[in-house]
Design brief:
This protein is an alpha/beta fold. It has helices at 7-21, 43-53, 68-72, 79-88, 105-108, 122-131, 155-160, 192-201, and strands at 26-28, 35-37, 62-64, 93-98, 113-117, 134-136, 163-164, 176-179, 184-187. The strands form 2 sheets. Strands 6-3-5-4-8-9 form a 6-stranded mixed beta sheet, sandwiched between helices. A hairpin with a 4-residue loop joins strand 8 and strand 9 (184-187). Helix 1 runs parallel beside helix 6 (122-131).
């Protein structure tokens, strides 16, 4: 999973994964914007993400995985939802599916469903592969603009994380959030037209 990374990037991913294992927070690049990562299965770490972002506990976070197969260990998608995941992931899509009981209530705001991300970015994938599922939420204070470069990080975010993995400038387009079962697109982002076409055809 780290074979496409430079030695500097591999070292940064290792430091970030170690920090996540210790319950700390990290910043990492994705194919959309920079993300704020913590152990998605650790309620205390997830709470820290909410605190650092100043985010309402009623606004759930997504779970980032290294592959669709990895995501299936923590979710129970329908046949249609799994087909959708295999069509669009990795990619700039958040797929809402039924969660497994191992996923903590705090991550999903008590819902029995969770948004799944498999980012199409080698650093993000390597981090999730090394650290296990991580929180997938933008690395900004709630209400502030998304971060495309590490020099755009708010000071509270920068000071509140253990490691910042610099992957250069990201594209900046938010992921599309979709529920393949209901066919609802909750947020239009990257690839929304293609997703709508798939939903209509399946």
């Amino acid at each position: 999973m780290t074979r496409n990374l430079s030695s500097t990037e591999r070292e940064a991913v290792e430091r970030a994964a170690d920090a996540v294992a210790d319950g700390e927070l990290v910043v990492y690049p994705t194919e959309t914007v920079y993300g704020l990562g913590a152990d998605a299965l650790d309620p205390g770490a997830v709470e820290s993400v909410f605190d650092l972002k100043g985010r309402s506990r009623e606004n759930p976070l997504s779970l980032g995985a290294a592959s669709v197969d990895d995501a299936l260990a923590y979710t129970h998608p329908t046949e249609r939802a799994e087909a959708f995941m295999r069509e669009f992931l990795p990619g700039p899509v958040t797929v809402v599916v039924e969660r497994d009981e191992v996923v903590p209530d705090v991550l999903t705001a008590g819902s029995d469903r969770v948004g799944v991300r498999v980012p199409d970015h080698p650093i993000a994938l390597a981090l999730a592969d090394r650290a296990g599922p991580v929180t997938a939420t933008s690395a900004n204070r709630s209400g502030a603009g998304s971060v495309r470069r590490v020099d755009e990080l708010d000071e509270p975010i920068r000071e509140g994380v253990a490691v910042v993995v610099d992957g250069g400038e990201t594209p900046g387009t938010e992921s599309t959030v979709v529920d393949p079962v209901s066919g609802d697109i909750h947020r239009r982002g990257a690839g929304a037209d293609e997703i709508e076409a798939w939903l209509a055809a399946h």
